[in-house]
From TrEMBL:
Residues 1-54 form the CheW-like domain. The keyword Phosphoprotein applies. PANTHER family: CHEMOTAXIS PROTEIN CHEV, CHEMOTAXIS SIGNAL TRANSDUCTION SYSTEM RESPONSE REGULATOR CHEV. The keyword ATP-binding does not apply. This is Chemotaxis protein CheV.
Length: 202
């Protein structure tokens, strides 16, 4: 329990590193950074909220027609999030409707993964990425993907715990097609359907 706040510091996502593997699983830490020669841990807000408020995640999955399901199933989907609970929520949502997907823990590994897939003529079609991540954040990832001819066709969906018009506006500025607030499984699936329709139309 936090009793009071000693200091508020501002730091760039590039200065934040993923939590070390030695931290273990189901810990409430999503990354670390340094401040005045001290290590500062970043709380995994999604995991914390899911423990305090089990109803935090809206996992109601919309009913899909066979055509809709097959349309999404045919696409290469990549989910990117540094939060273990968010990755589980994303994965559970797609597993419930039998949609295959790949997972990455951060923006740098996602970009590397996408480039490797594209080099094998198996490019990612739908990218779903968190915004706040260590290293390469979701905004930067969307921008890099949009500006890489081998990756740019991907339908880019950003999602965040921080709900604001500013997040949505910036997401569109960097090349995201959609910006969603975590976590509503129905909204995510509907966004993917729009992505599938857009890719089919193009």
């Amino acid at each position: 329990m936090v009793r009071d706040i000693d200091k508020i510091i501002e730091c760039d996502w590039k200065s934040i590193e993923p939590a070390p593997e030695s931290s273990g699983k189901n810990v409430f830490v999503t990354g670390v950074t340094r401040f005045n020669d001290q290590i500062v841990q970043l709380l995994d807000v999604e995991l914390l909220l899911s423990k305090i408020y089990p109803q935090y995640a809206d996992t109601k999955i919309p009913m899909l027609t066979d055509v809709q399901r097959e349309r999404i199933k045919a696409l290469n989907i990549l989910l990117v999030d540094d939060s273990s609970i968010a990755r589980k929520q994303l994965g559970d949502a797609l597993n419930q409707i039998s949609i295959p997907f790949d997972l990455c823990k951060d923006g740098n590994s996602a970009l590397e993964f996408m480039r490797a897939k594209a080099s094998r003529n198996d490019a990612i079609d739908i990218l779903v990425s968190d915004i706040e991540m260590p290293g390469l954040d979701g905004y930067e990832l969307a921008f890099e993907v949009q500006n890489d001819p081998a990756l740019g066709h991907a339908y880019r969906i950003l999602h965040t715990s921080l709900s604001s018009e500013m997040c949505t506006e910036r997401a569109h500025q960097v090349g995201a097609h959609e910006a969603l607030v975590k976590f509503n499984a129905g909204e995510l699936i509907e966004a993917m359907l729009r992505g599938a329709e857009s890719l089919t139309a193009n």
